[in-house]
Amino acid sequence: MRRMGAFFRKEMMELLRRKKLMIVGILFLLFGILGPATAKLTPEIIKMLGDSSVSGLTITAEDVTVMDSWIQFFKNLDIPMIVIIIMWSSAFTTEYRQGTLIPLVTKGLSRTDIYAAKMLMLHLVWTLGYLMYFGVVYGYNSYYWGNDGVKHMFVAILLNWLYGAFMMSLVGLFSAIAESGAQVMLGVGAVWFLCTLVGIVPKLADKLPTMLTDGMSLMRGVKSPGDYTIAVVITAVLTLAATFGGAVLMQRKKL
Amino acid sequence: MNALEVNAVAKRFGNKEVLRGVSFQVPEHSLFGFIGQNGAGKTTTMKAVLGLLQPDAGDIRVFGEPVTYGNTKTNRMVGYLPDVPEFYGYMTTREYLRLCGEIAGVPGKELGPRIEEILKTVGLESERHRIKGFSRGMKQRLGIAQALLHRPKLLICDEPTSALDPVGRKEILDALLAAKKETTVIFSTHILSDVERVCDRAAMLHNGVVTLDGTMEELHSRKNGERFRVVPKNQEAYNVLCESFPAFETMLGEVGEQGVPALMIRHASEEDFFAVLACIAERKLAVEKAEWLGATLEDMFLEVVRS
């Protein structure tokens, strides 16, 4: 435990000194502000276009509701999530390439310690970043529109978090096999692509991890939390399998 | 007790058989030179000892405990200096050594003073910058510091002097000699003079097997490495000697003052020596030099490599 703690502190130092935390923080903050701002400003922009009366078109904008801002919340989330995946795709592989793990492993640091510390850090970054993102959007939405009509908000938020955690566990799994960051990204991308592909079959779509990103159906009340049960179970099982699979494969990894 | 026992270790990468049954022992408290050409398999052997690489066959023991691939327990007793040590550039030396010490299980109270002590040993005590800007020599010294920090019973250094200038080399060799008082040291190298300077035992790896192994005295007393060399003064002497003694080899690289190449008998016996001297005296041959050469490591090395 002491060893893992020491290695985790090293990860923390890396997060701060290599400005990874700052980049992730700014990104989530920026997109958190962007969502409600887009929702708020779109009608104004459209109105301005309409006023310019250059064309003979009459543009009418429907009233913006809090739902429009939540749509932006789920849509915008992809970008910071992809950035985290890209940034962490080389978290293991750079160390393999440079041989920085060797002095530590030859002092008795176990591969499980390495894997656990790095994955804990990745999940923490994702979770805290996501929480901040949610906090910002929630704050703006309450201020501008109020969140009263939004159904199952916390369930929707939680489901999306689980989807993110699944993606992060894939980063760990592929990092235990791959030699380069590009290979890790390719692996994660391939799984995402597979999910999307299988999702074309309507019968299967609601059983896949990608189902969890559909928070809007919950918020609008089109679906109930029970509709997500299978997808949640499957995603949770896959996340655990990827995490433990990565830990096992890490034991055999050539450093 | 043996600090390290390597028994019939084999390893192949694809078609390439890098180790073909490597065996040697390193007794406790020795400074052991592991000699071999570039690509002879020295690093592969060391990585196998550290459990960083799985041998196809054979077994390895550190102080009697078997080495296993992956998380080997034997590493608690080992300090390792990689050939090109790489550290986290965003840390300072003290931060890095603290990390190493915590992982190696150095008790918290001892760690601070130990770090200062070891930094002084390697001459980095006044260095407060981050590792990012370190020169190769500085990284090598930090490498020794991290390898010795937890007072390992076995210190393994992969080519610690190869990339350094003579001053840097001397510093590292002195550090290894100093370390020998507390621990057993193995270092790989292709610089034979380094081995002659500090080691008390050596083994030579060639074509995937250990071809020479023993204490320095044993290696030096090997008769078959001894040679007898004559530098003729003129062509006539050269011709006579060549005709009389077919065992003479012409050393084209060693030319005497008169431009006549030197002659050498390898694996020379004392009879050869006296016969040649008798011939020189009898025929009154003009000879610049006739000398009996003991075996140097370099001779043995070249002999092994050529055969």
Instruction: Give the DSSP E fraction of chain A (strand runs of 2 or more residues).
Output: under 5%
Sketch the topology of chain B as an H/E string, one letter per element. EEEHEEEHHHEHEHEEHEHEEHEH
Structural class of chain A: mainly alpha
Give the total of beta strands of chain A: 0
Global mean pLDDT of chain B: 88
Q: Which regions of chain A contain 5 or more consecutive residues with pLDDT less than 50? A: none
What is the CA-based Rg of chain B, rounded? 24 Å
Number of helical segments of chain B?
Answer: 10
Overall geometry of chain B? elongated
End-to-end Cα distance of chain B = 34 Å
Low-confidence stretches of chain B: none
Return the string of H and E elements of chain A.
Answer: HHHHHHHHHHHH
SS summary, helix count of chain A? 12
Overall form of chain A: globular
Strand order of the largest sheet of chain B: 6-7-8-3-9-10
Q: Which two chains touch over the largest interface?
A: A-B, 29 and 31 residues
Q: How would a crystallographer describe the biggest sheet of chain B?
A: 6 strands, mixed
Can you give the helix content of chain A as a percent range?
over 70%
Report on this model:
The complex is a heterodimer of chains A (255) and B (307). By secondary structure, chain A is mostly helical. Chain A is built from twelve helices and no strands. Chain A has helices at residues 2-17, 20-51, 66-76, 78-89, 93-98, 102-105, 111-144, 153-175, 181-198, 202-205, 215-220, 229-252. Chain A is globular and about 70 Å long. The mean pLDDT of chain A is 92. With 307 residues, chain B is α/β, with parallel strands linked by helices. Helix content of chain B is 36%, strand content 30%. Chain B has helices spanning 42-49, 93-104, 108-122, 136-148, 166-180, 192-198, 216-220, 235-244, 270-283, 297-306; strands spanning 2-13, 16-27, 31-36, 57-62, 65-66, 78-81, 154-158, 184-189, 201-206, 209-215, 227-232, 249-255, 261-266, 287-293. Chain B has a six-stranded mixed beta sheet with strand order 6-7-8-3-9-10, with helices on both faces. Chain B has a four-stranded antiparallel beta sheet with strand order 2-1-4-5, covered by helices on one side. In chain B, strand 12 and strand 13 form a beta hairpin. The model of chain B has no long low-confidence stretch (mean pLDDT 88). Chains A and B meet through helix 1 and helix 6 of A and strand 6, helix 2 and helix 4 of B.
